[in-house]
Amino acid sequence: MLPSVLVLLAGCESLSFYGQAARGQLQLLLARQPVARLLAEEELEPPLRQALERSQRLLKYLEDDIGLMSGRRYRSYVALQRDAVVYNLVATPQLSVTAHRWCYPVAGCVPYQGYFRRAAALRAAERYQARGFTTYVGRVPAYSTLGWFADPLLSTFINWPEPRLLNLLAHELAHSRLWLKGEAAFNEAFASFVGEQAVRDYYGAEGAAVYRAFQAQERAWRHLVALQLELRAALAALYGSEVPDEEKTARRDVLYDTFRRCYETDRERLGAGRFDTYIRLLNEAALAGLATYEQDQPLFALLFREADRDWARFFARVEGLNDLGDTARSERVAALRQRVSADQQVAQQADDERADQVQCRALAGHGVDRNPS
Fold first, then answer.
1. Nearest residue to 196 via CA among 293, 55, 320, 82
2. Which of 221, 238, 218 is nearest to 95 (CA)?
């Protein structure tokens, strides 16, 4: 995730926003403690020592085996007194599942706005709600400054289980390797794929017990992601139809009710209650944020297979897209998405009867008829 701290030279939507971004980043920079110095301290608490040592070992793997160079990043540590480093605001207009975009000179246009204080993010959400937007504020444990600063390890994630920590470090370092200005969904899906594939490669087919537990959690989330994207597609079709707004609102409520019944029906497989709070708060803004990270991941899985699972060749293919002009790149990405869609339809037809598929198909047919493509 790219934070708003990189965009301090942008216009004047809110001086307080840019002020809090500058203060938040500066506080992180000033609070950094070198990992090497911490590890040299005899009185360092064993859990933190083990976590820091693990992080450096994982960074070495990412550099040597994946090709994600960390440089000065994640060689320092900051202990925060909060549950996230920033809080992301996502906002969607009424009857829309497309996120509002904030545009900045470095990052381009992105579908989120980051605040270092949760209260500030909530106040911003209230302002957008007053303008008719649907909003969602999510916690962000880490972000990348794309090499502008030496990003530190943070207390918000340093104690995560090893697979999850590896995923996060790979995700953030992937942002430093490639960031297409104004292409947030592409960037986040790329980094998300790199993080997940790096974990799979690190542990191999069998893996340790901690990896098997991670896999079980990931399977539950993958199933839930599929169901959420189905809901988002149904809502997008509804909102893009000629149905009057009053009827759209009524049908929207039916879709959400159906989705939550699907969740309850398959609750054990969909996290066994771990996502109950999230599901209760789910709205169009949350779905828009989810799509930013998830929707294009199969595209990168396709490129990875075409590169024979070779990381250097994979990165060359993806980075080659950056060398194309905007029009050519958009056409290439669109063609890849069509191939992924065709592959997914074939796989779904073959897998409809498999026991590990999400069982609830009740969303299909609700809202309005929609083009399968």
1. 293
2. 238
